[in-house]
Design brief:
The chain is an alpha/beta fold. About 40% of the residues lie in helices and about 10% in strands. The protein has 13 helices and six strands. Strand 2, helix 3 and strand 3 form a beta-alpha-beta unit. Helix 5 crosses helix 7. It is found in: Cytoplasm.
Length: about 350
């Protein structure tokens, strides 16, 4: 919502109920066609980042840039750790939730991180059995990302330096795959930095978009007149239609007197994140964004956790009680049958 109020067209999507990566690519492309969007900038966390890379690999003409957070380039390690993956679609819902909601460490956490975890847990509780099975299937389906036509300079890797459910080895593989990508580090943030550290994540996203040639559109903000009050802007003279790939627009975007509101806000003093590659925020300017280009946020999907949530404890008790009850019925029936034979 913060980026939308700054004039960016941002759409947050849920991963649909698909059962392999090929279905995901086709479903996401149909979604983009339905909303009439041709080119996108993808931001994905964990599983969302992995799916974003797959889409960029198979649909290179549609993806302009990537922002990957706590993500990975292959799923074989997850597949090895889950030997019962072939029967995941037959697994009861409460067992799927138990597997999904394991991995959060015990002990005190920062309030914002704890709130983000509580929100994710509440969202998982609303998912159906098929949705749970679908996302776990995408996570354990042994696949790796191939080479991308997208240049490393159009990729930003945004990672948290504290605890994360994604093994450090997988995060290192991602960095090695894209050696020329920009790096953005958050000192803390946990598994869901877009929830626990939204201000810092939004600043990094704005820097990334500015670097790849995307400018905020004030006319997209409700209540703001088209043109953003800049009567001499090129978008007004051309009826609001501009091609972000036109190099001539880059020179206009880097002029010494940018339009009002094009400057990024200064980083908050309480921010603990740092980046070695990006310039100071006070010097950041943005380029124009075409109405056919947007930023799409793909959620993380699921992460492996290590503690059983108390919410499903009663389901486990009911499951074991049901086994004892069925066993007792079988024993009684067996003895009754033998008794009738003896009589």
């Amino acid at each position: 919502m913060s980026l939308s109020m700054k004039g960016y067209r941002v759409i947050s999507v849920d991963i649909p109920r698909v059962w392999n990566h090929h279905e995901w690519i086709q479903a996401f492309e149909k979604f983009l066609d339905a909303i009439d969007v041709h080119h996108i900038h993808l931001y994905g966390t964990s599983l969302g980042g992995f799916l974003a890379q797959l889409f960029a690999q198979h649909r290179p003409r549609r993806v302009r840039s990537l922002v990957l957070s706590n993500s990975f380039v292959e799923t074989r390690s997850f597949s090895t750790a889950m030997p019962w993956a072939p029967i995941v679609s037959w697994t009861p819902s409460f067992l799927l939730k138990r597997y999904v909601l394991t991995g959060i460490r015990d002990g005190p956490q920062e309030p914002f991180i704890a709130d983000s975890v509580d929100f994710v847990v509440s969202q998982v509780e609303t998912l159906s059995k098929d949705d749970l099975a679908s996302r776990l299937t995408l996570t354990v389906d042994a696949t790796s990302v191939g080479s991308l036509l997208l240049s490393d300079s159009f990729i930003t890797i945004m990672d948290t330096n504290d605890y994360c459910a994604i093994p450090q080895q997988l995060k290192d593989q991602l960095s090695e795959r894209y050696p020329g990508a920009r790096r953005a580090y958050l000192k803390t943030g946990g598994d869901f930095p877009f929830l626990s550290r939204p201000d810092e994540v939004n600043l990094y996203l704005q820097l990334h978009l500015r670097r790849v040639g995307v400018e905020a559109r004030p006319d997209l903000v409700p209540g703001v007149p088209k043109g953003g009050g800049d009567a001499g802007s090129p978008s007004e003279r051309n009826g609001g239609q501009e091609d972000p790939d036109d190099p001539s627009k880059d020179n206009k975007g880097n002029s010494d007197s940018p339009p009002a509101g094009s400057q990024l806000p200064p980083a908050p003093e309480s921010s603990e994140s740092h980046s070695l590659d990006d310039p100071p925020l006070s010097t950041a300017k943005i380029l124009h964004l075409d109405h056919k280009v947007m930023t799409v946020l793909i959620p993380s999907g699921f992460l492996m956790i290590q503690d059983v949530v108390l919410l499903i404890a009663w389901e486990m008790l009911a499951f074991h009680s049901l086994r004892l009850y069925v066993g007792s019925l079988y024993t009684i029936w067996n003895y009754s049958w033998k008794f009738r034979q003896a009589v």
